[in-house]
Design a protein that fits this description.
- This protein is an all-alpha fold.
- The chain has a domain of 172 residues: Alpha Horseshoe (Leucine-rich Repeat Variant), CATH 1.25.10.10.
- The protein is globular.
Length: 745
């Protein structure tokens, strides 16, 4: 590290070499994986002595004053990473003082570059620091330096770096936003920056305002009128699309915040407690102004050559319109419908596509009954539009039909199911982009039959069931199956059709099963000449295993004659030890166990080693999670016949709970699995009781930080797993003697 720091800070060294030294030094201090990052932090303190750490820090601070921009930038990255490590531990107290001193440098030659690199360091530092790592005095000092860097008379490079740093520091400025004078100063600086001649500064300023809307919603009242004017002007008039997109993002953030508050209020109303946040309904109040701007200034700005996932002004406007529909509801219906009626048959393709997109975004938010007539009127037009001469128009029409099937299936006009299904089936022959959206629509249409009784002899999809499955299975083998996730979308639609099939289509499902098994069998003989070929094979195996799981659960006991063949293929998939394919194979085997119950015992000899390997797969936590779920399925299926395998399963589950490197998302399922084992082996579970109860007690003792939403959600799921384990243990140990003096629950 010392050598790298010297290479980085030495002015006479090669520019490229200095930059590489800085990047390598940064990577020695930081990793995206939390466990690896924690290990690197440990090594910084244990493997690097105090003198060497001090040398590295001094060298990296020195390079912030370098005349070489690349070296100074690399130095900013390293200073921020070391600062994030040390400030958390209340080390390097002089760091902020040194950085703030750089902001007042009088070095005429390098003044602006020094300020720029220092502001970069402050920005990166704020990204990495926890909020409690700096006190309010330090926050004030950082904020003062940043705001000073954004002065209108400053160099534009310094102002842009300061704006980025301010964006990163906003999470630390809660106390400053509580102070009206300081809050107004920050808002004035940001609002002024939105009018800068520099596009990059305008972009960052609007992005910061969007972040303010999310972080400090309750502080917006005195600024909302100015923000309304600034954002709508930028959306309509700014020559840089990125600036307009960030202005749109302000309203998207505002919508998301208001929707979250309304959801909280609804939850509070149900629990009869007081909500601490009030929704000001800014979006609803401004909807009559925002919606026309979104329709006329964003949705019609499509780039016909952009990829489907490209984020541009048209895409940002469409997402924002959908959020406005949810936040403002009925208020936007007249404006959107007027736009749709005026443009859906327009000669210009951009107008047609924009009107269909607007209609699709309108479908979630307003009262459903308000949309009954519009949906019924639009259906024939949308179905015809699947044959439009422009790909984007067809793509959006198929997506909108998918939204109708998802949200308003009951409003599809009587007698229009046949032309809808036939047109979507025909669209499967279109470009991969359109075909993928057609799969999405067919998936949602099939999902609409989810609540139909499984015992019904037939349903409205039965007449189209065989041709649809044939067309979807053909789509999975198109030459362009990789484009727009066509193969994955087609198999998802196949799964949903099978899941919701009526009894009269059972023979067709069993025919499809034979096709799927043949395809799965053929994957093992596929010629593999590259890593891409190998990944392609595993991805296909994953999809086919997923279909087998759905078929198994859908046909119930009808699967039994085919189980030997199915299990043999699934074990072959597990033998390849590929994470994605193994995860689906485990779940398919769990479905078979649940269906055939104790007859699954005949497969345990071959399957058990794979199960144990899966339970110990800490690196691929999704595989571990799937194997835990399958272990529970097998225990419920075999009941007392699982006993010969229990010692090893319980040992693995206890190791899972104790392993700090295993993703915590697996652990609630592990706890629940103890309940499945207890129910399966009844009184024989008593030998595992002490270790099980100890683990349950430790898990129940975990503390909740109300400010950490992810942790609160995790603890809730964990406690559900704990309760399921206790219930299984109590129900399993039915003999009172087993409970007496053994536990207190």
């Amino acid at each position: 590290m010392v050598a790298l720091a010297d290479e980085l800070s030495e002015e006479g060294r090669n520019e490229h070499s200095r930059q590489l030294a800085g990047l390598h030094l940064k990577n020695l201090l930081f990793a995206r994986d939390a466990h690896i990052s924690a290990e690197k932090k440990r090594k910084w303190y244990t493997d690097v002595d105090a003198n060497s750490r001090s040398h590295v820090k001094i060298a990296c601070l020195k390079v912030l004053r370098s005349a070489n921009p690349q070296a100074a930038h690399a130095g900013a990255l390293v200073v921020a990473k070391i600062g994030a490590l040390e400030l958390q531990e209340k080390q390097w107290p002089e760091l902020l003082g040194q950085l703030l001193k750089n902001m007042t440098t009088k070095d005429v030659g390098n003044s602006n570059l020094t300020k720029t690199s220092t502001l970069e360091a402050l920005g990166y530092l704020c990204e990495d620091l926890e909020e409690e790592a700096v006190d309010q005095t330090e926050t004030n000092q950082i904020l003062t330096a940043i705001v000073d860097g954004m002065r209108e008379d400053g160099a534009i490079t310094v102002r842009v770096a300061a704006a980025r740093a301010l964006l990163s520091s906003l999470v630390f400025t809660r106390h400053n936003f509580d102070n009206e004078t300081e809050r107004t100063m920050i808002m004035q600086v940001l609002c002024t920056a939105t009018k800068s001649p520099d596009e990059q500064l305008r972009i960052i300023a609007f992005e910061s305002l969007a972040r303010v809307a999310a972080l400090y919603y309750e502080k917006l009242p005195q600024y909302i009128e100015a923000l309304f004017t600034l954002t709508l002007t930028a959306i309509q008039q700014d020559k840089d699309e990125q600036v307009s997109m960030m202005a749109v993002e302000f309203w998207s953030s505002l919508c998301e915040e208001e929707l979250e508050i309304l959801e909280e209020t609804n939850s509070v109303d149900q629990s009869r407690t007081l909500s601490h946040r009030q929704c000001a309904r800014y979006v609803c109040a401004a909807a009559s102004h925002i919606v026309p701007v979104l329709l006329q200034s964003t949705l019609v700005k499509q780039d016909e050559y952009a990829d489907e996932d490209t984020w541009n002004l048209s895409a940002a406007g469409a997402i924002c319109l959908g959020l406005v529909a949810q936040a403002a509801g009925d208020a936007i219906v007249p404006d959107v419908l007027a736009f749709v009626e005026s443009n859906i048959l327009h000669a210009e393709w951009r107008r047609r596509e924009a009107s269909i997109m607007a209609f699709g975004q309108l479908l979630d938010g307003p009262k459903p009954e308000l949309l009954t007539d519009p949906v019924q009127t639009a259906m024939p037009v949308l179905v015809r539009t699947l044959k439009d001469n422009h790909t984007l128009v067809k793509d959006t029409a198929a997506w909108t039909l998918g939204r109708i099937c998802e949200l308003h299936a009951q409003r599809i006009p009587q007698g229009y199911l046949q032309p809808l299904v036939e047109s979507l089936g025909g669209a499967l022959q279109d470009s991969a982009r359109v075909a993928s959206q057609s799969c999405f629509a067919l998936h949602n249409l099939a999902q609409a039959f989810e609540r139909a009784p499984r015992s019904r002899e037939t349903n409205a999809l039965s007449p189209f069931f065989r041709p649809l499955l044939t067309q979807l299975l053909a789509a999975t083998e198109r030459r362009d199956w990789q484009d727009h996730n066509l193969r994955g979308q087609a198999y998802e639609a196949v799964n949903m059709l099978i899941q919701n099939h009526a009894r009269d289509m059972r023979p067709v499902v069993l025919e499809v099963m034979q096709v799927v098994l043949q395809r799965l069998h053929s994957t093992f003989s596929t010629v593999v000449v590259s890593q891409d070929d190998k990944e392609e094979r595993y991805q296909l195996q994953s999809l086919l295993c997923s279909v087998m799981q759905v078929i198994t659960r859908a046909v119930d006991k009808d699967i039994e004659p085919f189980c030997d063949h199915i299990v043999a293929l699934l074990l072959q998939v597990l033998n390849n030890e590929h994470a994605i394919a193994s995860e689906e194979a485990f779940m398919a085997l769990g479905a078979i166990a649940s269906t055939v119950e104790q007859a699954f015992d005949k497969y345990m000899g071959d399957f058990f080693p794979f199960l144990i390997k899966g339970l110990r797969n800490y690196a691929d936590w999704q595989v571990c999670s799937a194997s835990v779920g399958t272990a529970g399925d097998v225990c419920r299926a075999l009941e007392s016949r699982i006993l010969p395998y229990c010692d090893e399963i319980v040992r693995c589950l206890l190791e899972d709970l104790q392993n700090p490197t295993l993703n915590r998302q697996v652990k609630p399922a592990v706890l629940s699995c103890f309940g499945d084992i207890a129910l399966a082996v009844s009184g024989n579970f008593v030998k595992y009781l002490p270790s099980t109860l100890q683990m349950l007690e430790q898990a129940a003792a975990m503390k909740i930080s109300p400010d950490d939403e992810d942790l609160v959600e995790y603890i809730t799921v964990l406690r559900e797993g704990i309760l399921e384990a206790y219930i299984g243990v109590v129900q399993g140990l039915v003999i009172r003697a087993c409970l007496h003096d053994s536990c207190s629950i």
